Amino acid sequence: MLSKLNGILTIAVAAAILSSCSAMLMGEGSADSPPIGSDGRGSAQMAADEVLTEAVAAELDGNSTLRPESIAVSVRSGVVTLGGTVGGFDARELAVELATAVAGVASVNNQIRVKTSN
């Protein structure tokens, strides 16, 4: 499954880059143009981050040990942030390992909390 996700990610990133280049050639963007996103990312980076978000979420979802619905995934410029709450430290570390293994992930910011017994 990981190799399939890596292939999808590679194709999506290439498509985003080609789309951005095409827009510049057509005069729809230039070095003087403001970034597309309000957070400073261009359209190609935003598309790549979206694809990466989906790939990491799919990797977490494909693991039977985790409850992926309890883990939030966000990506900004290749940096994955994981949030939410899990039942133990092993699950927390597993989520980081799985996210790190996805092609295109620059680093992982682990904000996952471990549920403690009351």
Question: Which helices and strands, and how do they pair?
Answer:
Elements: H1 2-25, H2 43-61, E1 71-76, E2 79-86, H3 89-100, E3 107-110, E4 113-114
Parallel strand pairs: 2-3, 2-4
Antiparallel strand pairs: 1-2
Helix pairs in contact: 1-2
Provide structural commentary.
The chain is α/β, with parallel strands linked by helices and 118 residues long. The chain has one domain (2-28, 41-114). The chain has helices at 2-25, 43-61, 89-100; strands at residues 71-76, 79-86, 107-110, 113-114. β1 (71-76) and β2 (79-86) form a beta hairpin. α1 (2-25) runs antiparallel to α2 (43-61). The model is unreliable at 22-28 (pLDDT under 50).
Number of strands: 4
Compute the average pLDDT: 80
Q: Which range best describes the helical content: under 10%, 10-25%, 25-40%, 40-55%, 55-70% or over 70%? A: 40-55%
- Measured on Cα atoms, how large is the radius of gyration? 17 Å
The span between the termini is 38 Å
Structural class: alpha/beta
Tally of domains:
1
Shape: globular
The share of residues in extended strands comes to 15-25%
The biggest beta sheet is recorded as: 4 strands, mixed
Order of helices and strands: HHEEHEE
Query: Low-confidence runs (pLDDT<50, min 5 residues)?
Result: 22-28
Total helical segments: 3
